Amino acid sequence: MLKEFSFGFGDSEIKVALPEERVVNVVEGKPAKAILDVEAAVREVLNNPIGTPPLKNVIQQGDKVVIVASDITRQWVRHDLFLPTLLNELNKVGIPDEDISLIVALGAHRHHTHEENILTFGQEIVKRIAILQSHAPETDEFVYVGQTSRGKDVHLNKHVVNADKVILTGGIVHHLMAGFGGGRKAIMPGISSYSTIQENHSLCLHAVVGEGVSPECTVGKLENNPMHADMLEMAELLKPAFLLNAVFTPEGQFASFVAGHWYEAWLQGCKTANEIFGVPISGKTDLVIASAGGFPKDINLYQGSKTIGNSFMAVKSTGVVILLLECRDIMEPPDFSGWFNYDSLYERELALRKGFTVPGFIALKLGYMAKEVPHIVVSLPQNKGFFEKAGMLTAASLDEAIIMAEKIIDKKEYTITVMAHGANTVPIESA
Predict the structure, then answer these.
(1) Lactate racemase C-terminal domain location, by residue (predicted)?
(2) Catalytic choice (109, 112, 159, 201)
(3) Active site residue 375
(4) Is 174 found in the same domain as 302?
(5) Residue by residue, what is the 3-state secondary structure of 336-385?
(6) Ordered mean pLDDT values, 10 residues apiece, the chain (431 residues)
(7) Any catalytic annotation for residue 175?
């Protein structure tokens, strides 16, 4: 019996009928209830935190408080909706707005404009407290605080280091390298110097030159992840006083907040994020058909890389991945697309070891995944050359892609995984 499945492709949909008995996994995010009263939810976790006393007992009158917050690339965290409540709770403790500052955790990203501060944090926050920016290349802004057990020197923003109390904020989602975002990422890379970021991120590369990326630094993995472990040591050197992080629904609304100890509360948030977006599968399959979910998630390959990384987790080593990615802006962003100009993965890797960038790492990881398992991309016709440079096959239609995949798999009763929202769903193989 055939069953029809729909996949987002830009602003449209592509439908296909597949043999129902061979579709082993349909990977979809779990529904999650959105928080209706954000202010009440934030107050609740601030007063009943995980691993620490309530905020009012952690912060004392007279403290100079610095709040670390994500930059505009994480605008989806919606700091503007929960930071006012945090400020009001600090005010109740006896901390006036003039003793509170917010530092934008830019990492190596560019500075915010005033307008972007308003977009990211809201007009009320911009009016009420001082806003500073931590920009990794500005060496004078960072001070040495110690060294990790892996020999990585740690330089953090001096305004944060010199504060009486530091509060970390952010959002928790799955992360391609660090396992999960949020928590300690506010510190590394958020308020770390450029050299410190480079040293930490280099742990994502394989210990052996020429072997590409570390298999331990991947989506949803914290155990034995050297990048994550090093980040924890860096956070411990700072000893943040408190954390407030958000977890989201598949629609991008708040699902829950966690607050308290910078590690224990965050870890609980990771579990919640995994419950929503981590989807158990009965086993890997011969074929995975995946879509990002349409525009804007498939606006370019950089955005589409989330879908590729997730779908790779569901395919057998002898299998094939079919991707439906429109990629109308295939050359964007330039600091990603330029990495595909190297003649080989080895040259791409050597360049990355000389100067690590996250886009470069993603480009390298995509190359190694495509080398290990054939990837067939259904995209716009003009993108054919770019995907070939990325080491992937192309097809003009999903039907053509399936015919190509069947020739590679070379068996009649092959198994299938369907991922219609591959950008947001993480397949987790059942034990």
Answers:
(1) 284-424
(2) 109
(3) no
(4) no
(5) HHHHHHCCCHHHHHHHHHHCCCHHHHHHHHHHHHHHHCCEEEECCHHHHH
(6) 96 96 94 96 98 98 97 90 98 97 93 94 97 95 97 97 98 93 97 95 94 94 97 98 96 95 98 94 97 93 94 97 97 94 95 91 96 98 97 97 97 96 90 61
(7) yes
